[in-house]
Write a structure and sequence with these properties.
Blueprint: H1 2-10, H2 20-23, H3 30-41, H4 69-75, H5 77-89, H6 99-106, H7 113-139, H8 145-150, H9 153-156, H10 158-166, H11 185-209, H12 216-235
């Protein structure tokens, strides 16, 4: 009891925040969750928080307004365009013009494939925006929205594609699809688990959609082949190129 009280004293438990299910979506990669969490708290090192340094406070994307969390997610024309493309792919009808509105729109007690996919996409988008911002600031390199999306395995990989197919709305992916290079074994294992788990969910959706008829056998066969291909890819026995 003493240790428990001491632990509670040094680490008190606060009230549950409403955005917790969105920020800490279990299907997202941990690094995506972490950057989204910092963005929600307003703790990213945006230029408005670095005024003690002799730096240009304007946004690295539009070069017009001051770089703040609100501007970066998603008031800026560049980041807003990126988020609009992703919403269009995922058939998100709500406007969600800011990060707070996106958190409210994606905060639902439902945990089906559709909502989990959309939460994953928000975390990926915030991560990519911050990554691209840092490249522009520190590496003096820049990419357009279409180029960045086309080169990102997180937005064009089989993970997002499979999840989008689970709700019956195929994603219009850029062509040609990129080859995924240099991903660690941990990253590939994470993607594999997400893919296989979503495959099992899709089996249930397909069966209920077809009323358990023979039409779902094709879905089962394709998903089984997909799972085998991903497992072989993970173990290094085959190379999947696009």
């Amino acid at each position: 009891p003493f240790l428990a009280h001491a632990y509670d004293f040094f680490r008190p438990v606060g009230s549950m925040v409403s955005w917790n299910p969105v920020v800490w979506e279990q299907w997202s990669l941990p690094k995506h969750n972490f950057i989204l969490w910092l963005a929600v708290l307003g703790r990213l090192r945006t230029r408005d928080r670095l005024q003690f340094l002799p730096i240009d406070p304007t946004c690295a994307f539009c070069r017009c307004e001051e770089e703040t969390h609100a501007h970066l997610f998603f008031s800026c024309n560049w980041t807003g365009c990126l988020w609009a493309k992703i919403k269009s792919w995922l058939r998100i009808g709500r406007r969600m013009l800011s990060l707070n509105s996106a958190l409210r729109g994606l905060n639902s007690k439902r945990s089906n494939v559709e909502f989990r996919m959309r939460r994953v996409s928000l975390a990926i988008t915030v991560y990519l925006i911050w990554e691209e911002r840092n490249k522009r600031v520190f590496d003096a390199t820049s990419r357009g929205v279409d180029i960045m999306v086309g080169c990102s395995p997180w937005l064009t990989g089989d993970c997002i594609l499979l999840l989008s197919l689970a709700i019956g709305c195929p994603v219009s992916l850029p062509s040609p699809r990129p080859v995924i290079h240099g991903q660690s074994l941990h990253t590939m294992a994470w993607l594999c688990m997400v893919q296989l788990y979503s495959s099992w969910l899709l089996l249930g959706l397909s069966s209920s959609r077809h009323g358990g008829s023979q039409a779902s056998l094709f879905d089962r066969l394709m998903l089984s082949l997909h799972g085998c291909a991903v497992s072989a890819w993970l173990l290094g026995f085959v190379q999947i190129s696009c």
